[in-house]
Amino acid sequence: MLQILIKGGWLMIPLGICSILAVAIIIEKLITFKLMEKHTEKFKKRALKILESGNNDRKIDKIIALCEMTPSSLSRILEAGIRRLGEEKGEIKEAIEDAGSLEVPYIERHLRILGTIVTVSPLLGLLGTIMGMIKAFNVISIQGVGDPGALAGGISEALITTAVGLSIAIPSLVFYNYFAYRAERLVRTLERSSSDFLELLVKGEENAISSTKISHQSQS
């Protein structure tokens, strides 16, 4: 196998670099998405615990403190919405969406590199094909077609680089589309979770105010 790759010529070096980068990015994104989902669920449980607590006076302060102590996308999006509480719903929603858009570069980190690999790898393979065919035609122009062995080097180089380039690009494209879909879904989930938390928080505050008014009226 190694000898076959060596026959591919010097273009196997950039193709090898592309393959290493692609594998590293794929592994990194799989781990990152798994950790982000795990941390998001953990943060949601802690925030819900605060919302379900009996003390209504300092729920907002506690959740803001939790957001500041938790370095996650959901905490930053939720904090952006909480900071706009008391304003119109449209403005709160806009703040959440703006915060979500700011998280997109972090969530999609390294995807542009993977997308570049998807584009460059088959082009490198095509370049190897062209260079291999040029070598083969040079041999034909010098020695004619009487010696098939003399043509083997150029033709094998052309076929090997093409095969390797496509072998890198095809799985990279599959994972790129998968990660792009997963990133978009994660951002939407974070924004929706933040909106749900804010609604629960506002309802809790309104219920607390109503209970206070009722108690004052009964005492009077």
Number of strands: 0
Gyration radius, to the nearest Å?
29 Å
**Please, how many domains?**
1
Gross morphology is rod-shaped
Share in β-strands: under 5%
Helix/strand-derived category reads mainly alpha
**Poorly predicted spans:** 208-220
Distance between the termini: 90 Å
Number of helices: 7
How would you sum up the major sheet? Answer: none
Mean pLDDT: 79
The SSE order reads HHHHHHH
Q: How much helix, percentage-wise, in residues?
A: over 70%
Could you name the key traits of this structure?
disordered C terminus; rod-shaped; mainly alpha; 220 residues
What is the topological layout?
Layout: H1 2-6, H2 12-51, H3 59-69, H4 73-82, H5 89-107, H6 111-143, H7 148-219
Helix pairs in contact: 2-3, 2-6, 2-7, 3-4, 4-5, 4-7, 5-7, 6-7
Question: Could you explain the architecture of this structure?
Answer:
The protein is mostly helical and 220 residues long. It is built from seven helices and no strands. The chain has one domain. Helices cover 86% and strands 0% of the residues.
What's a quick, concise take on this entry?
With 220 residues, the chain is mainly alpha-helical.
